[in-house]
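Appendix C reproduces, verbatim, an entry submitted by the partner laboratory led by Prof. M.T., so that reviewers can inspect both the input and the predicted structure.
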Amino acid sequence: MTMKRVNQAVNAIAAGVQLFSEGVQLFSDLKELFSNFKANVRRNNKANLQRNKMANVRRKNNENQPKYKPLFTDEIIKKVYLDPKMKLSDYGHFIIANAAYIAVVAVEGNTPDSRKAVVLEFKENSAISIEDIQQLLTTYPEATLIVNDNGEGKILGELLKKNGIYYMPVHLGQNCFSNDNRKKYINKRAQSYFCLSRAVNMHNFKIGQLHNKEKILKEFSSIQYSYFSTQYSFGEHSRFKIMSLSEMREIGHDAPDIVDLFAYVFLENTTY
């Protein structure tokens, strides 16, 4: 074999090796490309599944949105102003307060389901002062003091504690204490308003003064309720729900500060 042929053979082998190397690289590139493609497909599928899941959740939430109705009709609201024939026996007193108002209520019955109540007086507390509360506690020394110390009421609660005045705190957004009530009501707000509405319907709740009557009637008419289906630890239940303050504001209603006070009277575990 001549040197020329040897060189040609070497060059051919080198070309073959080069071609093989390029083929291996091309295969490796194709493999990586295919692997990336599969990863992208998996990510897209996962993203699509997540979007579909969220869409289903939103659809179900929309389907489960409570259909609200007025809790107090105009006819019912008219029942709250004092009927002279209503008499209480063996009764005590609640002094109830939030950041805006203070009220004194004569109460008969230590269970919210059967309680009767007459609002004796109430006044504005716009300055968030405890002077009126101290005066009322002097007038009604055996009264139970019930205070909403959330939000703006936090200042009121701190003032009372600073002055050594004991009170029962109100947190309407919390769950009810008893298991039976948890099965029936979304929260304490729902429980207290349900019992208030029952008392109004049975002529067991009256207001003994005309102060702020127009505002009170407007607040009563703004309260709305629904029966809300939700998965709960006790199983599937339709529980009583009162429209929240944030939902009320969304449709143009103000916070029912006075009627909230009246609802405090019917909270579970309140005694005199």
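The chain has a mean pLDDT of 82. Additional entries are available on request from the coordinating office.
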